[in-house]
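Protein in question kept underneath.
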Amino acid sequence: MAEEFSTDGMLDIYLFENEQLLEQLQEMVLEQKDADCFDEDSINEIFRTMHTIKGSSGIMMFDNITAVSHKLEDVFYYLRESQPHHVPHLELVEHVLEVQDFISNEMEKIRNGDPVDGDASGIIADLDKFLEGLKKAEAGEGAEPVSENVHEEPKQFYIAPVATSASRFFKIYLTFYPETDMANVHAYKTVYALKEIAEDLLYSPEDIISDEKSSEIILEEGFKILLQAQCSEEEIRNIIGLGYDIKKVDVFECKAEEFLQGFDFGDQEPQIDLESSVEDIEARTQEQSENKEEPKEEKKTEKPKIAPGDFVIKSKEPGKQKKLAKDKPKAEKASFISVNVSKMDQLMELIGELVISESVVLQNPDLKVPGLNLNSFNKAAAQLSKISTDLQNVIMSMRMVPLTNTFQKMNRIVFDVSRKLGKDIEFEMVGEHTEVDKNIIEHISDPLMHLVRNAVDHGIETNTERAESGKTDKGKVILSARTEAGKVWISVEDNGKGLDREKILAKARKQGLLDENKPDSAYTDKEVYQFITLPGFSTNEQVTEYSGRGVGMDVVIQNIQQIGGALDIESEPGMGSIMSLKIPLTLAIIDGIVMETGNSSFVLETGVIKEFVRVKEDMMIHEPDGDEYIMIRGECFPVIRLGKWYGMTDYREDVEDGVMLILEMEEKKICLFVDKLIGEQEIVVKPIPSYIKKVKGLSGCTQLGDGSIALILDAAGLIE
């Protein structure tokens, strides 16, 4: 049957569901990597995860994924059934993560349309060897052998009945959520899962794979299963489970005769009261069985009793739809839908265009006619502004995702690198539920990876070095996140040896980075530490797999500056270092101050502007080399004339004719002189076209309400 249906429509669901399962698997494994062993719930959960991936991969005919997931399922099947006492936990963790990596790589190939040709033979051989070692160790203690976890390829979906005295018979009714996509595929996954325990298995509708219309039937009438197996009702419910697709599972045990009647019960079809809940029907049936005390002879001739699981739907009056018995009203359940990120980006762009169009309407010159009554217009404009603001907030919240998955990847890096370097390192996450724009997360993944690797490789000493220096505690890496004033702070902290100021200065002097006329003592610690972010700068004398080539920190700076962020470095010799990323919450729409210099418009983010000041000429200090400073309330600030900075010719030179803006960023302050202020406005950030050379101090551009283009200033570029 596998050759008769196309898997194209199922591929997206397969990738989405398995990606979620693998993320949960990695998180669970890393949480318990430092424990003595996996707890019972985790063993069951990992077994179920591998069982699900094996089943769905078998349906999709990805044989290598099916094989490796089945082999890991075998291992956890043995752990679940035999409960061995001596399990090398860290080795098992590495095996699970190795399988997770293999499946993730194969899924990436599927996503890119490449051949799924990964060789799983080595991983399977290692798992076989590991499992055999567990069995031998347990056999040495006289444990009873555990039956094999046998897997059959999905070639046929009906299993011939082999009833024994231990066999039990069940009628199962599945109700799916109305919004479930491809319900027939989810129904087949349930059938495939039950096949592992079934002696006999029938279901209706039958043709759930090749007939796409069966999905509509399942959503409208439910999915019916007849199961013969040697198991309990609880085991069936655990295998099927509830989720975002299955709303309700009804399981009813019946007699063999009722089971053999199948879904058609002859002329006298039992009926379900469609106006009552299943619980009410069961209660009435129980009352009838308790009140009636009839001889066994009479019961033999009596027609089969009606049970709520007999699945026959009563015909309604003409013009009314058929419906199933429903539960009592429950609280509304949150429903989710996955959306392609490109569609979200497109929607965000449309919102940006809406904001620009709104500015065009509200700032239209035609509205400035003297004597024009605009009361009604202003009310409508205020309502429009409120709606557009609310729309922006909703769209922004849809784009915001927690940093949990990104932080978990860093957890994995710490685990892998520390194992290879032989360092005993503890990893801690703080504020991992902080939400950030998805585009921001894509830009910070690589920088965070480099910072975490540096902390493990450069920062934290080997176990021997820590013992020699008198450090008794384990090496520790803390990854934390917090929001503050529209920014996100992400810090990587370690308790290692810290940065060596003298070593960095010596390297900088060797590369000609120091000013010959400036003594070493004149450089602050932060200025010295910033040298390590330069391309080709590395104090690691020995090249390793992870560092020592002078690359990494410059990548961090480049990626962070692309999104308007900054890197702050703090370190204390012998105690450790803190690398902090300061990044915006989102890249799309910001609050900005529009200003003019000459005939050009500029925009500056509101958050970096500390104060607006009108100044007098006698407050200015002019240096012979052309630098200018200004004294404001006893504090001296360097001055940048925006017109002079960009070589303009028509800007105001007299400071008393313009406005000074005090900018503050990373504890640094400067004064920016502009001709005049236009006002505050929501700004849609657009990138500067790639054919324009990168200009220091500019981060993007935007369109104003009058249709003109304004350049967005980068405060970090100006302050440097």
Remarks:
- The longest strand covers residues 475-484.
- The longest helix spans residues 375-399.
